[in-house]
Every structure is written in C-alpha cells, then in structure tokens.
Design brief:
Layout (H helix, E strand, L loop, with lengths): L6 E5 L3 H13 L3 E5 L2 H11 L3 E5 L7 H11 L4 E5 L17 H12 L9
Parallel strand pairs: 1-2, 1-3, 3-4
Length: 121
C-alpha cells in the first residue's frame, strides 16, 4: 500500500478562498499546490501528476471542458473535482468543524481518498 500524501492542485483565482481551502486540506494531511489560473494548473499537472485537481467552476483563462480534457490528456489518472466559484457561493469560512461550504469540500475530498468512515454527502 502506498502511504504517500495525495497531491492536490487547488485552482482558484480568488487568493483568499484558495488559501482557506488549501490550509484546510493541508491540515488533513494532503500535499497541496495552489494555482490561480487554468494555464498554470496544466503546467503543474504536467510537473506533479497530482491525484486530484480541485478547481472552481469559473477558471477565467480556460473554459471548463478544455481544462478537464487537457488534464485528462496530460495525466489520465488525475481526478477532477469542480466546486462553485465566487458567483455561486460565499467564500469558504475558516474552521475545522461544522457543515459549512468549506467543510463540505474537504469532506468530499476525504471520501474521494477513502479517508473517512462511511460519511454521506
């Protein structure tokens, strides 16, 4: 069994939201790399071959279908999880508990990597 930390690329042009989410994931034991654009994210995917790209829906420099297609071409095993962006939800609040939007994303990532018992979403 491979015990390395999963690598997650967080793609969000909103620095505050990206920092909040990245901090939460880092505290959960993930290796997080932040990028603010789709172009930078694709370069990062080529370099790191991450386990997951976690991106806001509205990555400004690349359309969503192109971003997903390009990630899959560069690294077929990398999973992609899209989350609502600035226009769709409030910024992710800080905190370790509760059921706010930020925690929902972290719990979804945990389930993706089988890090929680039988949580439901």
């Amino acid at each position: 069994m491979n015990n390395r930390q999963p690598i997650i690329v967080v793609v969000d042009p909103d620095a505050d939201r990206a920092t909040s989410l990245s901090s939460r994931l880092d505290r959960r034991g993930y290796h997080v790399v932040r990028r603010s654009s789709g172009t930078d994210a694709l370069q990062c995917v080529a370099e790191y071959r991450p386990d997951l790209v976690l991106s806001v829906v509205e990555v400004l420099d690349i359309e969503r279908p192109e971003l997903i297609h390009s990630i899959r071409e560069i690294s077929p095993s990398t999973q992609v999880l899209l989350i609502p962006g600035q226009g769709s939800s409030p910024p992710l609040p800080e905190g370790d508990g509760g059921a706010d939007g930020g925690d929902e994303v972290v719990h979804a990532v945990d389930r993706l990597f089988d890090r929680t018992p039988s949580a439901t979403f």
